[in-house]
Write a structure and sequence with these properties.
The chain is of the alpha/beta class and 254 residues long. The chain is built from eleven helices and eight strands. It has a single domain, classed as TIM Barrel, CATH 3.20.20. 43% of the residues lie in helices and 16% in strands. An eight-stranded parallel barrel has the order 1-2-3-4-5-6-7-8, surrounded by six helices. Bound molecules: phosphoenolpyruvate. The site of phosphoenolpyruvate (PEP) has 14 residues, from strand 8.
Amino acid sequence: MSRRLIIGGNWKMYKTPSEAAATAKSLKVKLINVENVDVVVCPTAIDILAVREIVAGTNIKIGGQNMYYQDEGAFTGEISADMLKDAGCDYVVVGHSERRHVFGETDDEINKKIVKALSKGLVPIFCVGEKLEERNAGKTEDVVGGQLKEGLAGIEINSAEKLVIAYEPVWAIGTGVTASPEQAEEVHRFIRKFLTDIYGNALAQQIRIQYGGSVKPANADELLGQPNIDGALVGGASLDPDSFTAIIKSAQSV
Ligand code: PEP
């Protein structure tokens, strides 16, 4: 596998179904037959079916923003892996910092979600990242290493296509403050080494590690040009089809 970048668009809790459909229509036109980069849009759950209908037959894939680790049951408000899969998702974001820090999701729950996603054929986009005070205290590697250790506990994979990691420093998400390419690359190198220790060099080299945190067209080239940055998870800038497309074009050109 050559270094094929992956660009994900996390639409968070933005866009009604009709707004999501309009965005998807625009992306479909702009990204018709997009090649050499994997593109994933992650609409809010209620928008997934509308988006699926529009991007059918294109190279744009769909991801859920979250899922629960049980198959079914009395879990009001939750969505299962089977539901996402049946609705047309190939990916699911797991452990986003907003899930961790707004909704109190734990490493153990995240691990269960990754296990379930993999068992159902969904590719988890597993998010890790430190808070500002943790970075300032020199604890970035401890925090990110701990999240990786707990999140990937007991997880075997035999193909790099089955797992995506997203490094998203909490202080850079939705703040307009981006990690410098050097800061991001340093942590991505650490994550690569961590993956090498558990999955071996060949697999670790091929697992995509996305950077997320205020990625926009103006900084995408520099970030995506770093050797261990294999893609981006884009929040705010993915809401606008023009800026999301510009980031994808950057990925195609680095
Ligand atoms: C995100 O939602 O994962 C994200 C990185 O958001 P933003 O690009 O807006 O910082």
